[in-house]
Amino acid sequence: MLFGRAQKNPINLPGKDAEVVKWEYTTCGYCSTGCSIEVGVNSEGQGVRARGVGGADVNRGKLCLKGIFEHELFTSAGRGEQPLMREKTFDAYEPVSWDEALDKTAAEIKRIQEKYGRDSFAIVSTGQILTEEFYTLGKLARGVIGTNNYDGNTTLCMASAVSGYKRSFGSDGPPGCYDDFEHTDCLIAFGSNLPEQHPVIYWRLRQALEKRKFPIIVVDPRVTMFAQYADMHLPVTPGTDVVLLNSLAHVILDEGLEDTTYIHSNTSGYDEFAKLVAQYDPVVTQKICGIDEDTIRNVARLYAKSNQAMSIWTMGINQSTHGSDGVVAINNLNLITGNIGKKGGTSLSITGQCNAMGTREWSSCSGLPGYRALEKEKDRVDIAKFWGIDPEFFPKQRGLFQTDIFPAIETGQIKGLWLIATNPMTSMPNTARIRKTFEKLEFCVVQDAYQDVETTEYAHVYFPAGLWAEKEGCMTNTERRVNFISNVLKPHANSKPDLWIFNEMAKRFDQGKKIKFPDSAKEVFDEMRELSKGRFLDISGMTHEKIKASRGIQWPMSDGADSGSARLYEDGKFQHADGKAKLIPLNFIDNNEKPDEEYPFWLNSGRVVEHFHTRTRTGKIGNLNKFSPTPYMEMNPDAAQELGVEHMSYVRLVSRRGDAVVLVQLTQRVPRNMVFIPFHFHECVNRLSLGLLDPYSRQPAFKQCSVRIENVSQQEAAAVVNKAARAF
Ligand SMILES: Nc1nc2c(c(=O)[nH]1)N[C@H]1C(S)=C(S)[C@@H](COP(=O)(O)OP(=O)(O)OC[C@H]3O[C@@H](n4cnc5c(=O)[nH]c(N)nc54)[C@H](O)[C@@H]3O)O[C@H]1N2
Ligand SMILES: Nc1nc2c(c(=O)[nH]1)N[C@H]1C(S)=C(S)[C@@H](COP(=O)(O)OP(=O)(O)OC[C@H]3O[C@@H](n4cnc5c(=O)[nH]c(N)nc54)[C@H](O)[C@@H]3O)O[C@H]1N2
Ligand code: SF4
Ligand SMILES: [Mo]
User: Fold this and answer.
1) Could you tell me the strand order of the sheet in which 232-234 lies?
2) Domain locations in the chain?
3) Which of 66, 79, 126 to mutate to test the pocket of ligand 2 (most atoms within 8 A of CB)?
């Protein structure tokens, strides 16, 4: 009998004969690969097809299945059509005019700030709006509303990479690019399932491998699709990558395989670092990280002896209590082997959301625009002058991270919340606690392209926002490439571009009237160009026209330059005051909730190729949803046999936080003591997760906690699962 995907109907491709009268250029709005897309528009002005752009350097005509069906989003179910308002949560919403919704929200922000202080109103945004929108939101949050409790969902996603890059190199900014695959002699991927999560980056890697063979090593506790295609798979014990990385460094230094010239000229802190890694002999560490001593030595030798070697990583590293340390450890490995800023030698974080880079660069979430810091007086003064406000209006250090904002609502420090393009009711750890937190808010406004997003259950006002190619502006991808998004269609119904919503909000505050809030993305981009002149993150040589014509340009590109820059740090000069990169000793602290007698399984979570995050979008695209319609978990067949659990039956998972019912998929992909659940479903894995926070990045360890498996009545379970699967 066939189960699962094999039983499903094949994908329905849009008919080749779908009548297209023009093709409009834009960029994909799901993941951070940054594929160029053309949307085919018919004579009635509807988006009817999508295709990859042949001349685009990133995807060279390819798209993954999310991109292929992206045009279906324009008319997908659940889109917001009209602003909505209600006095109390759980009352019925009433449709209202934009003026009413905006006036009410501005009045509530002012009321809460006057009564409880400026920081009692929090703003939580995203990695999924356009860069010009991010810059404008930052101006509104920092320069007008003036709350320091302003952050984004990138704290769930890229915060550890940001923090690790800053600690090692003195600045955020991934130093490498996809072209590095063409030059490298060895690649290690840590906690990244590239073929499913970044299919087109993976395709670029395969293209490089077809021309020239080089070893691929995948470090992941699961036998992912990437691990299956790799030359070596290292099934690391969850949460112990730092131990493995310290041990690789140990072997390299012990055997004299390091690049002494590079270390001497371009790094500081070698002695302390060498002292620490001396303690990480593979004989000892193999018992902690689960990789045998010979394999550790072999990988260390292979990496260090390659002319150029590169490391990539994603959430297996970032989402950990040692996320920031994991990133620093990867940077350490590349610094001691001289693999930074050279073709094929790099530390490349594979970014998550389509514009997670744009928010890091320009949104002012963690500081001020263009990689400026609130902690630096000059940066505060420069931006205040540019915006025309008093520098004293800015706080002198950053406020709470997203993962600390929710606990601050719980304890009553924060009373009002504006959510923009993020769905914490499904995406935050321990959602039962988040749900209770929402109940405490005096006022909540949700700004989302979909009105059926779970957070509207707790909002007082809903702003319907335009989506993806209904708006115009830029997004930055994994390799620092600034891409252009054209507004192929008008925003759906009476929804509005996020930029318009921010501008309208600014008009409702006195300080907002003093600052210029340009209407067009082009004028906003000009402000950003001006602010970037001569800086590390220089985009002054770019214009919207040039970006579109080149199918994306990589920063930095200074005014007058002919092209962007493929790599950072080619000259070995880093952003720390002494111009050197730091080698940082990393002690391992074993603080995860680990399997024990009561909760004997590791709970791991992540993604599948068909779905994007909380399914507000992909749950409505039939061609995607039908391949993965149900909350399920991967379980090892031997473990299942011991417990008498059958393939395709339902079970209840229980953790110290809560429970969830899922369908069982038996597979050798997971070890005996682990289950893996895609996090796309509401009321599922995040009812169970703990989410201990990284001390530097405040990113939650989504991938490590423990659960037990219980039997459940199959009939009752089917009802629960069907509800979570929520047929749209
Ligand atoms: N189809 C699809 N693509 C996406 C997304 C999506 O939702 N759907 N989301 C985008 C976003 S925002 C992001 S952040 C990326 C995420 O992209 P990835 O990080 O590649 O995806 P995940 O499945 O979250 O996690 C990757 C792997 O980390 C492993 N892992 C768990 N614990 C550990 C550990 O302790 N050490 C190591 N080394 N590995 C571990 C898991 O087993 C898993 O296979 O994908 C982006 N692309
Ligand atoms: N257990 C577990 N939990 C996880 C993870 C995990 O691996 N395991 N991964 C974490 C990671 S890496 C991430 S990035 C987060 C993602 O978590 P979220 O950001 O909370 O999830 P999304 O579903 O991407 O939410 C984005 C929202 O923005 C809306 N939207 C899309 N485009 C626009 C637009 O242009 N304007 C506006 N206003 N709205 C728009 C969408 O409809 C959607 O509701 O989840 C995190 N949670
Ligand atoms: S790989 Fe990412 S950017 Fe490219 S089409 Fe797929 S989802 Fe879009
Ligand atoms: Mo992410």
Assistant:
1) 232-234, 216-219, 186-190, 309-313, 346-349
2) 4-75, 84-156+362-472+485-521, 159-349, 601-727
3) 126
